[in-house]
Specification:
200 residues; globular; Four Helix Bundle (Hemerythrin (Met), subunit A)
Length: 200
C-alpha cells in the first residue's frame, strides 16, 4: 500500500503516451494530413467529372489545345525526383551524408524546374478562367497541384539546408522521411492530374 501510494505521489500530469512500434507520431501525422489533402483534390476532381460527364463539355473545348508533350516532360521530371528523394533517404539511413545532400539538391532542382515549366505553360497556353468551364477546371486542378509543389519545395529547401549543416544522421533522419513522404504524395497526385486532365 505504501509503495503504491508513493508511486502515485511521484507521478503528476497525464499518463506517459505509448507509441506504435511500426509508425512514429510524425509519420502518422503526415499520413493523416495527406488523407485530408486527397479529400481536397477529390472535390476538384468531382467538379471536373461533373463538367465533362454530366454537362458533356468537350475537353479541351475548341479552339483550345493542351500542351500534352510539355506536360509529359514535366511528368518525367517529377517522377524522377521521387527516385532522387528516395535515394537521399536511403543514403542517410546508411550514414552517407553526401548521398543525402546530392539527392535532396537534385530533388529540389527538379521540383523547381517542374514549377517554372508550369508557370511558362500558363503564360503561353492561350486561355484563362474567364473563357468557360474548361479553362476554370484546368487552372483549378493544375494550380492546386502547383501550390502543393511550392509547399513541397519549401520543405525540400529546409531539408537541404539542414542536410548541408549536418543535422541528419543514420540515427536521426525523421525530417527526411516525413518530407519525402509528402514529396511522393505530390508526385503521385500529379500523375493522377496528368492522366485525368491531359490524357483522358
Amino acid at each position: 500500500m505504501a509503495a503504491a501510494h508513493a508511486e502515485h505521489l511521484e507521478h503528476h500530469g497525464p499518463p506517459t503516451p505509448h507509441y506504435s512500434s511500426r509508425i512514429t507520431p510524425g509519420v502518422l501525422g503526415m499520413f493523416l494530413f495527406i488523407a485530408s489533402e486527397i479529400m481536397l483534390f477529390g472535390s476538384f476532381f468531382t467538379a471536373y467529372f461533373f463538367i465533362r460527364v454530366v454537362n458533356g463539355v468537350q475537353w479541351p473545348t475548341p479552339p483550345y489545345h493542351l500542351p500534352v508533350y510539355v506536360a509529359l516532360l514535366n511528368t518525367c521530371i517529377l517522377v524522377t525526383s521521387s527516385f532522387t528523394v528516395h535515394w537521399a533517404l536511403q543514403s542517410i539511413k546508411r550514414g552517407n551524408v553526401w548521398g543525402l545532400r546530392a539527392g535532396l539538391l537534385l530533388t529540389f532542382l527538379m521540383g523547381l524546374t517542374f514549377l517554372i515549366t508550369q508557370v511558362i505553360e500558363y503564360a503561353r497556353i492561350g486561355f484563362n478562367t474567364s473563357d468557360g468551364a474548361f479553362p476554370t477546371i484546368f487552372f483549378c486542378l493544375t494550380g492546386l497541384h502547383g501550390a502543393h509543389v511550392f509547399v513541397g519545395l519549401s520543405i525540400l529547401l529546409f531539408m537541404t539546408i539542414r542536410a548541408f549543416r549536418g543535422h541528419f544522421s543514420a540515427e536521426h533522419h525523421h525530417g527526411v522521411e516525413i518530407g519525402g513522404i509528402y514529396w511522393h504524395f505530390v508526385d503521385v497526385m500529379w500523375i493522377v492530374v496528368y492522366l485525368t486532365v491531359y490524357i483522358l
